[in-house]
Amino acid sequence: MRRLAARGAAGDAGEVAAPAADSTDCARGRHPSPRRLVDLCAIWDPGVFLPAVGWKRASGFARRRLNEAETLNSVREAQLELLEAARPRGPGSRERGPVLRMARQQQPPPWVHAAFLLCLLSLSGAIEIPMDPSIQNELSQPPTITKQSVKDHIVDPRDNILIECEAKGNPAPSFHWTRNSRFFNIAKDPRVSMRRRSGTLVIDFRSGGRPEEYEGEYQCFARNKFGTALSNRIRLQVSKSPLWPKENLDPVVVQEGAPLTLQCNPPPGLPSPVIFWMSSSMEPITQDKRVSQGHNGDLYFSNVMLQDMQTDYSCNARFHFTHTIQQKNAFTLKVLTNNPYNDSSLRNHPDIYSARGVAERTPSFMYPQGTASSQMVLRGMDLVLECIASGVPTPDIAWYKKGGDLPSDKAKFENFNKALRITNVSEEDSGEYFCLASNKMGSIRHTISVRVKAAPYWLDEPKNLILAPGEDGRLVCRANGNPKPTVQWMVNGEPLQSAPPNPNREVAGDTIIFRDTQISSRAVYQCNTSNEHGYLLANAFVSVLDVPPRMLSPRNQLIRVILYNRTRLDCPFFGSPIPTLRWFKNGQGSNLDGGNYHVYENGSLEIKMIRKEDQGIYTCVATNILGKAENQVRLEVKDPTRIYRMPEDQVAKRGTTVQLECRVKHDPSLKLTVSWLKDDEPLYIGNRMKKEDDSLTIFGVAERDQGSYTCVASTELDQDLAKAYLTVLADQATPTNRLAALPKGRPDRPRDLELTDLAERSVRLTWIPGDDNNSPITDYVVQFEEDQFQPGVWHDHSKFPGSVNSAVLQLSPYVNYQFRVIAINEVGSSHPSLPSERYRTSGAPPESNPADVKGEGTRKNNMEITWTPMNATSAFGPNLRYIVKWRRRETRETWNNVTVWGSRYVVGQTPVYVPYEIRVQAENDFGKGPEPDTVIGYSGEDYPRAAPTDVKIRVLNSTAISLQWNRVYPDTVQGQLREYRAYYWRESSLLKNLWVSQKRQQASFPGDRPRGVVSRLFPYSNYKLEMVVVNGRGDGPRSETKEFTTPEGVPSAPRRFRVRQPNLETINLEWDHPEHPNGILIGYTLKYVAFNGTKLGKQIVENFSPNQTKFTMQRADPVSRYRFTLSARTQVGSGEAATEESPAPPNEATPTAAPPTLPPTPVGATGAVSSTDATATAATTEATTVPTIPGVAPTTIATATTTTTAATTTTTAAAAATTERPPATTSGTKMPESAPDRQSIWNVTVLPNSKWANITWKHNFGPGTDFVVEYIDSNHTKKTVPVKAQAQPIQLTDLYPGMTYTLRVYSRDNKGISSTVVTFMTSTAYTNNQADIATQGWFIGLMCAIALLVLILLIVCFIKRSRGGKYPVREKKDVPLGPEDPKEEDGSFDYSDEDNKPLQGSQTSLDGTIKQQESDDSLVDYGEGGEGQFNEDGSFIGQYTVKKDKEETEGNESSEATSPVNAIYSLA
Question: Quick check: helix, strand or coil at residue 690?
């Protein structure tokens, strides 16, 4: 398009687009006018030279442009000679190639090159009309078509017809239409109207009419006083979806192994329908290389097998516009076979054909027939070649191209290699292709000759031409095609031959040349190029403008710039002819250009390096023959912002104060802002920090304060940064060795960095370490900087141990690296080393594709494709973009694709909830990434259309019902079926005058299931229920409302149960009725028991009437306390119980809890157990016990017991474990549930300790069922344990002491079957709230027993000292005592002191002999005693031997005389 003479600001300073060195540039724009010397562009016109007028009429602008050329004099002389000798070389179009060759052969003089260069400069300098509204509204412009319908416009007969035509122009154009090349009078047809300020036709059928009556060829005309523009010829057709002809299809009989073709022959639709095969039950036909659908819609069997008879076959046609599917009558297939048994085990047989007795055959082609065929395809379309062969075994298909390879970038195989698709066909894809069908019996081939034709396509599309008066120009309309298209020119919609003659216009084939254009030359030209395969129509207007210079930017702008920077002053202007622009400073001096100044073609002035003396007022002046305009720019130079005292790296001990300095120098006229970053994130200034203008102070340094701190000093024009690292040390002991006492410091910076082993993706970096300053270097950090994306910013690359000084660095493509190294010791980090030399890696295609590709519908008619965008290190090259492809799953549709620069793309106009195959591939300027994986996504869902039917309700018990319903059909779900949902609400209670909440509740049943259970209902109530089906979009319609009534149940616990003790003789009990009676109350049951420490009284039961809410009890024992358990009753039974205890007497210490009378923790009861309960029941043997758990040692449940010191302690712990009770909760303690009549889990029992818990439950599943134990702690951390049914009890380990857990058990195969939730608490590791041991009865009794034993021992000692008896002893341990003992003549000695006391475990008989004492705790009783030996100090020295005969021992004891002395010895 010829661009108007307007100039504006360029891009970045110093970046100016170079003109394309192409000879056709002159053909695409205007030619210099007579004021510009001569038609210079005509020099390079293909074979044509058209001289213009002489030099004297040249404008000042043209003379200035030629004066800038180095060969001005030679150009002028040669031009005068050329004017005399030039002659036309004839009309007609020429190719650019011969002209260039002619130019090279003739070797034109230097002035020709200069002239051609000036022509290119004049074209490249022009831009379009500015978008300034004031200019747009003032300039006149012929019409331009901006929007129109497609050439083949197919419409839905159910909708109104819309034929689009919109245009712009000044003045605004008017519109009219032709139909079938005749004027279409819109006013005569009441159904047809035209939109306001538009040419769009609207045909309304709400009041009747047939859309078929309006079919035809339409064309729109947009007209104003400067010309007429035309739309394409729009062929309007109404979509048709004809019915399938009725026919009766006989069963198809075929022999097993023979080929078969089931023909579809769909009715002709507009557009053609999509064909697919299904059974009559709407199940898709499975296709493979043996059975597949051809491109024509027929279903081909390469060989028929007996299994093909198991279904029928129906061809279906889906029509796009009407969204209807029509089904052909189904084919019934009858297979004749020699082996009538269809053994499914043979399907995976390696040679199924021989196993079934099917004869093997060589391949033969079913489609196409014969050995050769031909096919024609249009350029730019997809070429689909197909070969379907029969044979036994099923043949394989391979494709080849004669004389070359298949185009790998465009060719792909479809339909199990039976089809070859080549996308975007071009002329080089013509030739001969052949397919080869082969099996083990042989092979055949079929040759397809492909011819590529082409509808017209543009080589040079005519562009709008905007000229100044007197200028020359041309319109070029060049197109190609096969066969060669013809070109027809029109002006304002009329053939050029019938238009009024114009002496300034000349037609030369596909080119119109304009000379010395005037205002009257304005018009719209049409170029129509066509052949037998199509046509192209283009509008291009010629507009002549005469506009004096105008400035486009605001006047008197202020530009502020930092000293020594580069800047650019813009002065956008506009005018026709193109004005010249000059710059002046402070209103004086010559034109600014050269040296430190540079003026661009668009008029911008660049100052390469700003100095103080450059400050001032700059004036730009634009001039053409119609006048001049000027504007001023004021430039102010500011001092840069610099941090002259930067923060330094510091090492501080924890708790000390640190100050980081940051002193800044800046221009006083600019506002300064100082901020701080920590680890490159904005720093939050808390109470421990103080920020001042020149420092940051941190009080009480902690470990979390360690990191990098960056001071950012910024103004509105620039900023400066400085970074320091703060290391926080923990308190350390005073060093004891001499080396540690030396002062430590940060290491010196590494030096002499060197890059070696240069490779595409790696490099070796070597450095020399600096001094460690008495603290060993622990790490080296290698950083890099690149100068393209973030120049001047250093990033951590890798970290290496302090023992190395050379490392191989892995690099990414398309990065210009520069490295530096930082050394780190315990004191801190060194200053960075000096940077290394730069190393640039070459670019490469991406090696990965974006992750997390998803396709989900956000509306019912779209699908949003999203992905996680790749970061800069994965881009591997510039201009990273994504190729998004999608197509319907399991169809023969081609891939749709689009290039996206973001991270999402929305596919519109999709069917409801259809699966799509999605691929997202990364691409940069170096190429594409690897082939992406295919992801399955779904288009948007719509609300379900149907509701569950035949809803049946069965009451299971007072709180649960069973539901059963008929599932909805899958096609009515219109999405993914998430769940069936029951909405139910309590309509009323069967108890009179009881208010109930009618809030709606819901129960969900995930998946496609026909039944479910609703629980947690209120007993004795009327309910209503509705059911819906739910997909991802929401609920479907509601089912018919059902009503049901729940039977009577057990009541909840009585409310506000209170125990008062007005005196020591009576106890008063009061309570309120249950909040939920759940039926008709028939009374209350009160159970109470007295307890005093570990002593437990007899339980007493009292029954009360339903109206009684008070009871006074007379105390039988004023010392004991009482535990009361109260529950309400209905006809069903007793409900939840409320438990309270009588108050403790004022003079009694905090008592321990009495032993429990309830079973272990049942389902629904809170399992938190207090340590007081566990301790109080330690010595009790009468309480209810839990079942013994095999393999689990007895232990206290609620507390971690201390180390046991006697056997009695162990017994106590065991008793505590077996008598533990659940604590009372607000809802009372549930009794164990009874087994329901359906699959359920109940009676979950939890026995917790401080760090583990044992779990048991009941169920009615079969053996081998898998369960899952799920428990959640107070921090909402969920854990699951899969278990087998027979593996009970289950022990949960690694629990935390003193933490509350919620637990449930559910079926692994059906998560909907679950127990109720159980809450329990593990005991604390050390219990602080133990009762005072001095007040415990057992402790007082134990102390009394010990005192009695001590008294008895004292009496024994007194008696023995007064007797002085003799005892036989042995001098040697291995010699028996006898009269022959040489040391003692009589074998005895006097017992007179404690050194000669009897042996431990012996006692003295009346005859003076020593006898082994019988004891329950002796080693003899454990089968180890007998001959055991002891030293004189009582230590054991013997070996375990066989136990003595018990009867002998008993006989010895019976022979002794029973005297008081012996009895005392026995006690001792």
Answer: strand
